[in-house]
Amino acid sequence: MSIYLLQTINGIGIGMLYFLLAVGLSIVFGLLRFVNFAHGAFYLLGAYFCYQMTRWGLSFWLALVVAPLAVGAIGWFTEKLMLRHVYAKPHEFHIIVTVGLALVVQELVILQWGPLGDSVAVPELLQGVVMWGSFVYPKYRLFVIGFTAVLAVLLWWVLEGTRLGSAVRAGSESTEMVSLLGLNVLRIFSLVFALGAATAALAGVLAAPIRGAEPFMGIEALGVAFVIVVVGGLGSFGGALVGGLLIGIVQSVMSTLWPEGARLMIYVAMAAVLLLRPHGLLGRKG
Amino acid sequence: MAQRIGMQRALTQAPTRSHTTESLMQRRHLLQLSALGALPASLGLGASAWAQSKDAIQFGCPVPMSGAFAANGKYADLGMKLAIEQYGKALDRPLAYTLLDTEGKPATAVRKVQESAQQKGARFFAGGILSSEALAMGKEAEKAGGIFITTAGADELTGTDCNSATFRWSVPTFGAIEQTVRPLLEAHPKAKRWYTITPQYVFGDGLLTAAKNIFKEKGIEHVGNSYHSLTEKEFSGYLTNAMAAKPDVLLLLNFGAQSSDALRQAVSFGMHKNMTILIAWASGLEQFESLGADLCDGVYFGAQYWHTADTPLNHDLVKRSQATFKSNPNYSLAGSYICTKLLIDAIIKAGTVDQKAVVAALEGMKYQGLTGEEEVRKADHQVLKNYYLLKGKAKSKMANKDDYVDVVSSGKSFLPVDKTGCKLA
Amino acid sequence: MTRHFHLLLALAIVVAMPLFMQSGSLASEVLIFGLAAMGCNLLLGYTGLLSFGQGIFFGLGSYTIGLLLTRWPLPMPLALAAAVGMGAAGAAIVGWVAIRQRGTYFVMLTLAFAQMFYFIAYSASGLTGGDNGLLDIPRPSLAVAGHTLWPLATPWQYYGFVAVLFLAAFWFLRRVCDSVFGRTLLAVRDNEERAAAVGYDLRLLKLQAFVISGAVTGLAGALHAMMTGIAPLSNAEYHTSEMILVMTVIGGTGNLLASVLGAAFYVLLGDWLSTLWPRWLLLLGVVLMVVSLGLQRGLWGLGESLWGLVRRKAPKNAPSAGLNATGDNA
Asked: Residue B12: its pLDDT value, please?
């Protein structure tokens, strides 16, 4: 198989994880008009909760369910108790309060688990590789692609097919309309924020066997998430998917074409989109 | 954790006032209540009960305590603490040190070294985990009339950027490659195709150049190299590239979290089954703990230090570390310990804290070190010591919780001084 | 009136630090980041632009003076002026592109640029020294025709130099903020549409604010490089931009002196706490959250509130000499 095909497939694998990482950030922005700089911190917590649970001897599969729920709950309370109070303030305070939160979470993680970083084992079922001719690919990464694809469909269905989803989409257009229609806007905000946190945590759990759990993974993830939501379109679900896949494939293919430039290209892409098509590839105006 | 440890003044003689900063500090001391010891040293109020700043010989431990290398910094701090407590005093003066959090940033490191020299009259510094901060601090130490001894890897520290104040305990790139690639070739003579993954900066290039020289000499085919940035976490693209080149050996020239990530991902791709993997610049115990035994199995690691080294000083250190911290010393701790010890020994040997005398005492010093016989080479201030090639063992074969590796070989390889580019006046 | 009061306060700070502090380097660091925070505040507090790109200008200042004192030597004052110019030029480019967007998109653009600059600086190691940065940057004394006017060798001597430049910049920025231009910026911050409707050229105004901000930040970067003797890559990192922003917000975006306060708080507290507790960033995070949630006018606002409380209590104390409201007896 041509190296470029291999890299593209690898890029899809990276990209699906990026999608999961970024989709929460995108949806939260779409509804709350809020750039959550603590998004990486939720990803971090997901990875560490997963690590802790495996340390306790619990299965990875259990962590896959429990960690996102736990972090989602944390997200819910964060929104309710803290973030709600800054909505009325200038947008710099939205950013600063979440920057502060991200710092606090990171340092708490280091306090609890130390600064060193740890590995999380790939679950036994998924260890090893699949071989298809000269194509070698870890089973676990294939699982990640499949799992996030299913999740993507699920999320899409929630956003398009349910009342909650309609409320969220309507709320992205106009929160006043939504409240006039009798729906509890604040409750929806909390739910959406919790959902964003939960998806980030889920991405963290999935990433842990690949990248380990390490206290500074939150910052790195945030940077990547920003690029993806900007390229795909802030507030757009489809944009997160397209953006994630695009960035993942670019990153992977670049490692053959021009390895040093892989990271630079990502930020150049981000700046280019911001200049030429600021609402992203699939974003809506407004 | 405030780190000012020393002995009470019961045994001290009249303090020597050799620095002008001492009198400056006297002028600025408004209160001498020992209870105010916790107040910011920057305010110049009071002296701590632990170390009378007039008497104590002040050391500084400039290491990252926050940021990506906080783990190394934490253990480096413990290493200096161990050495300072062990000696307690030198030249009848108590020993004291301050932890200086460099945050992994050279500018912060330089500023804190400056401050420490100004506020406490500190002249002896052991630290610098990252090359960039070590380079900057070495220059600052020279300006401040102090001595800086480091374990950082950049060749320039005892090469083109060497100076009279800087000393280095760790083996630089040439030795690290010589003592890992060559023995590996002896163990696997059929390994003719090598692929390298290199962090894109001076240090990475140093390792790569040294490796390429051996490749040329031994007729090894260098089937490919992937550069990556210092913040990279996703190595699957580079590994896919590597696999396509079908190498016999995957040589990872990155370090720290990046080498761990690269290894983890390489193992997930099953690469450890098809080829030999060598991490030329591993940290040692810290890294193995964070990777876990399963990932280390069968992988080769190059290391500056391993706690099973059979030398009297190392046995002593292991005992002390077990007694104080209930654990074996890892590289960060051991490195910091020996660097501090070297400084203290040199001060004692010189009989004074005068910088030039201590430098002269250090130069050419031969001693029984952690890795065997070690010598501080006079011409470039590089310590000549062993570098180890380790091989990870299976979890089932581990005799105790720290028995991650077997020592394959060790030895000393250093560039002759005229090739290092160092010109000490 | 307030302008003179603030200038006096700034002077007081500059004079007080040598009296209470032992380290000239630390004192210089406070003023240097005070400059950077003021530059950031000009954009944030006065124009309503949250810029994550201040690290770019800081880094440009450092690199420029590094190159102009080592590789292509110029006399120090000229090199310093060039660094200021480069900071301004960089800000002009970044600003010109970034202000095409508003609100969150603007913020993201500055972020993207900051990351791009970091990677360019990292890759162009021939020029910037890459990860090692530029080393051996000298600190030449201020001299005229071979006659040394002002030696800068010791930390406190250098502090004096930094202090003079700081006060000059402070005075200049105050004049800018109190001028018609400054007031127009405030109008832009409060309501862009209205300002545009009234006929102001938003683009030009924002660009000018950027250029001034970049110049001041470039000066800060250059002074920092001379103090530490290095122009490291970390000056161009995201963390530097974040730090400058944090100082500005903590201090309070209401006025320039507040930014200096924020810088002093961050630098001094960080320096002190980091010797006690490696996890001191945790406390900083908490402070940030507290400021955003309750204390939006930052430390300066806190100070003003406390001052207000004290002054309201005073009339009760003054008249009765024997017994006052708080219960102390004469």
From this structure: 40
B132 Cα to chain C: minimum distance (Å): 5
pLDDT for residue B384 is more than 90 = yes
Residue C52, φ and ψ in degrees, nearest 5: -95, 15
Pairwise CA distance, residues C100 & C104, whole Å: 12
Residue A224 has pLDDT above 70, yes or no: yes
Residue A6: list chain B partners with CB under 8 A: 240, 244
CB contact (8 A) between residue A220 and residue B233: yes
- Report residue A173 as tokens: 């257009």
Residue A195 placed within a domain: yes
- What residues of C are in contact with residue A86 (Cβ under 8 Å)? 292-293
Let me know if residue A268 belongs to a domain: no
Q: Does pLDDT of B423 surpass 80? A: yes
The number of folded domains in chain A is 1
Contacts of B among chains (3+ CB pairs under 8 A)? A, C
- Helix C24-41 to helix B106-120 angle, to the nearest 10 degrees? 140
Residue type, C263: A
Q: Is C107 on the interface with A (CB under 8 A)?
A: yes
| Least CB–CB distance from B243: residue in A128, A136, A252 | A136
Q: How far apart are CA B375 and CA B372, in angstroms?
A: 10
Q: Which residues of chain C have pLDDT under 50?
A: 318-330
Task: Establish if C113 touches chain A: CB-CB under 8 angstroms.
Answer: yes
Domain that holds residue A140: 20-217
Asked if residue C321 is part of any domain, the answer here is no
Question: pTM, whole model, 2 decimals?
Answer: 0.87
- Chain C residues close to A239, C-beta within 8 Å: none
Asked if residue C300 lies in contact with residue C261, where contact means CB atoms within 8 angstroms, the answer is yes
CA dist C201 and C59 (Å) reads 30
Instruction: Name the minimum distance, in Å, from the CA of A84 to any CA of chain C.
Output: 10
Q: What CA–CA distances, in Å, run from A113 to A48, A86, B371, B411, C26? A: 8, 31, 31, 36, 33
* Chains contacting A (3+ CB pairs below 8 angstroms): B, C
Q: What is the mean pLDDT of residues A70-90?
A: 89
According to DSSP, residue B54 is labeled: T
The answer to whether residue B44 scores a pLDDT higher than 60 is no
Least confident of A189-203, A272-286, B373-387: A272-286
pLDDT digits (tens, 9 = 90+) for B167-218: 999 999 999 999 999 999 999 999 999 999 999 888 999 999 999 999 999 9
Residues of B in contact with A262 (CB under 8 A): 228-229, 232, 237
Q: Are A154 and A202 in contact (CB under 8 A)?
A: no
How high is the pLDDT of residue C1?
Answer: 55
Alpha-carbon distance B268 to nearest alpha carbon in chain A (angstroms): 6
Residue B272: closest CA among A253, A127, A7, A260: A127
C213 located within any domain: yes
Q: Do A119 and B74 touch (CB under 8 A)?
A: no
Among all residues of chain B, which has the CA nearest to that of C273? B40
- Show the domains of chain B with their CATH numbers: 9-171+310-384 (3.40.50.2300), 173-303+386-420 (3.40.50.2300)
Chain C residues within an 8 Å CB radius of B161: 135
Tokens of B233: 């976490």
- Domain coverage including residue C89: 2-143+150-315
pLDDT, residue A284, reads 66
* C154/B contact by beta carbon, under 8 A: no
Q: pLDDT-based confidence at B66, cuts 50/70/90?
A: confident
Query: CB-based contact (8 Å) between B296 and chain C?
Result: no
C109 shares contact with chain A (CB less than 8 Å):
yes
Q: CA-to-CA distance for A265 and A263, rounded, in angstroms? A: 5
Distances (CA, A) of A145 to A13, A18, A19, A152: 6, 11, 10, 10
Q: In what side-by-side order are the strands of the sheet with B124-127?
A: B89-90, B93-101, B57-63, B124-127, B147-150, B166-168
